[in-house]
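ugh ok fine here u go
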Amino acid sequence: MTAGDAELGFRWAAALFDGLARSGVRRVVASPGSRSTPLTLAALRRPDLKTHVVLDERSAGFFALGLAKAEKRPVVLIATSGSAVANWAPAVVEADMAKVPLILISADRPPELQNCGANQTMDQIGLFGRHVRAFHALPPPEGEDGWLSDFAARVVEQSRFPVAGPVHVNAPFREPLAPRDASPCSSGAKRPEVLHGRSTLDTPQLERVAALLRGRGVIFCGPEDLGEDFRDDVVALARRLNAPIVADILSGLRFDGRDDPRILAFPDWIARAAPRFDWALRFGPAPVGKAVHSWLRANAAAVQIVVAEDGRFADPDRIASHFLAADPAALCRALAAAPAPDDWLEALLARDRSARRNAEAVCAAGPLFEGGLLRALFQSPPDDATLFLANSLVIRAAEWFCGAAARRIACFGNRGLSGIDGNLSTACGLASARGRVVAVLGDLAFLHDVNALLLARELPLTIVVMDNGGGGIFDHLPQNALPEFERGWRTPQVFDVAALARSFGLDYRRVENGAEGVAAVAESLNAPGATLVHAVIDPRLSLSLCRTFFATSQENA
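structure:
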C-alpha cells in the first residue's frame, strides 16, 4: 500500500461529507477509532459541520438521537469497524420505532480482510436488519469519487422520507488511513430540491368518515408531537365535535401554552373508570398509560379510527375499525361532523377536575415521592423549558400526576421502544442542541447510562435522579407478589450517586423534600455546566401515595 491510498480514502470520505453537508446535515457524532480515520477527519475539517467526539459508541448513538430529536434533521454517526458498530444497536432500534433520522456510517476492513481472522473484523453487512430504512455497502475507495456527493444526498432523503429513520452506510478503507495532505474539498455540485406532498382525503371519503363520528366521541393523541399545526387543528376539531382530547404527556398538547379544558389533564385516572364512548379518533403512537389502553379495549365495539400518514398504524390491541393514511393536521381541518352531546363532555371534564383535586391533595401531603416532585417541576419552570422524562416509573408518574398547565414546556422521551438504556445520553444530545434541559431519571436508568456523565459535565443540563432503591415500576405490577421479587425484578443497587457526580465534575445537590428539589432545579437553570439533583425516595411510601390517588378514581366513578 502507498501513501496515495490514504489520500484516495480521504478524498472519498470528503466527497461523501460534502454531499451530506450540502443536503442539510449540520451535526456529526464520531467515536475514536483507527479504521474510521478518513471519515472522522473529513467531518472535522468541514467548518459547516459541528462534530462531537463521544468515547462510548452506545452513548454516542443516543446522543445523536437526542440531537436529531431536538433539531428535527438527520445526524451522522461515525464508528470504527468491529464491535464498535454493534454498540449502536439500541439507539438504532429506538430511532427506527420513534422515526428519528440518523445516518450511520460504519468504517470496515476491505474485502480481502474479511472471513480470514483479521483483527477487529466482523460481518457488518445488513447488521441492523429491518431496523434501517436502507442499507448501502460502499466499495473500497478507487477511481472517481464525484458520484459520492449525489449518493449522500439520496441517503439524507432516505432518512427523512417517506418514514424518517436510520440509514446505514458501510464504508471499507484500506491502510494507510492517515493522509499527509487532507485539504477539505467541495464538489460545487447543486443539490436538487425535493418537495414532499401530503396525503389528503377527497370529499366522499371525508363524508364517509364524518358519518362515523356520531354520538359520544374521544380524540386520542399518543406520545409523539405531530407539530404545532396539528396541535392547533386538533384542538379546533375538538371544539367543533364537542369532544375531549386524551393527550399523552409527550404529545405536546398538555404543556404548549394553551388552556383549553377539552385537553384532559389526567386521562389515566379517568380511564380507570372506562367511560363508554361511541367513536374514537386516534393519532400518533400507542399511549403510555396502561389504563388508557384498557379504556380503548373496553370500547372495542366502538368505531375506532387510527390515523397515520406514513402507514405505521398504532393498533397493538387490534381493535381499530378503520385505518386512515392521511395527513393528521389536514384531516382535522377538513372534518366536519355533528357535535357530541353536552352532557358527555361535561361528565368527563368533571372527572378531570376531580382528578386534579385528588392529585393536588396527594402531592401536597408533604413526603417526597416521584409524582409529587414531577408535578412540582412541571408547575414551576419558566416558559419554553425543556424536560426529558426517562422510561419506566418516571414517565408514568408524570403521566399520572403532572396534569396540564397554560405554560410552554417541550417534553421529550424515548418511547419508540421504551428502554431504560441511553436515556441520559439522549438528554445530553437535547441539551447540546437546545440549551438547558432538565432530565429526570430513575436510579437504574441513571446507572445504566452512567458513561453519559462524560458528556454531561460541560452541557447546560440538570439531572434529577429519583432514587427509589431499584426498579420502582415493578412495585405497581403483578411481579411484586413473587417471593423472588426483590432479587429478580426490583434489583436494588449499591452505588454512591454523590461520588459519581463529583468524580465526573458535576455539581451535586441532595434533596429531602419537594420544595428543596424544585429550589435546586431552579438554581441549576442559571449554572454554567451540569448539576445533579439527588432525590432519595421511600418506595413503600411512594407506592402507598399512588394507590391512594388511584383509589379515588373508583370512588368518583
